[in-house]
Amino acid sequence: MQPSSPPHSDGDTRNQPMLIQNQHVAMPPKVISCKQIVVPTTIFNTQDASVNNDSSLKMAVEVAKTWKPGSTLSVSFIGRANVPDAVIESVKEFAHIWSQHGNIFFNFIGDGLVGLIRISFTPGGGNCSAVGTDCQLKDFNGQYTMNLDPEEDINERSLQSEEGKAVFRQIVLHEFGHVLGCVHEHQQPKANIKWDKDRVYTAFGGHSKKKRDLIDVNIFEHYPQNPAIVAGTEHDKDSIMHYEFTPT
Ligand SMILES: [Zn+2]
Hints:
single chain; 6 helices; 11% strand; globular; binds zinc ion; zinc ion binding; metallopeptidase activity; MetalloPept_cat_dom_sf
């Protein structure tokens, strides 16, 4: 089975309105592209984040796209036969970390079954994921809702070093953070980052208008100051949901 393409490429999302003023209206469906992420001390930026202690969580979520507490989300793999077992098992291991800290669970179902969350390993497809309950939208129509890119550290070689494994872990945690409904931390309403846009465009490869549009969507565009749309704790620059930026 060949991995399929997502119905929403990042290019498709760039012209959709990002700021919806009406309360209780969800943000438009999108697949978030995640190129660079931080190396946090722990996934929640606390040294002693205790299991099932919600007060340790720092995050910002799209309210309308979050799951009912206690939900178990089915997860399947597309093109499983072409992916090393070690990669599959590591994805499962790292995804389950979220369940140690939040009331949400993942059930990795068998070959041939189609999950709510459908993970592809398409080379060059980037690391990306639908946000929260968007994965149920007809737009995805059985196609993948998350891509973990073998060309961007999701491979067996990464697992052979501690450093590589840490990056692999960060990517999986980040993408499953989107599954929970988390938005990029640098775009959450309480983030107040003074951008040097030219430097960011350069650092993230904004050589073309298409690339710059992607950067606009995934970095500069800001969620509205409306807790009915995006609710979150204070801006956490060490969040797993934050891109990595070098200070000027
Ligand atoms: Zn992301």
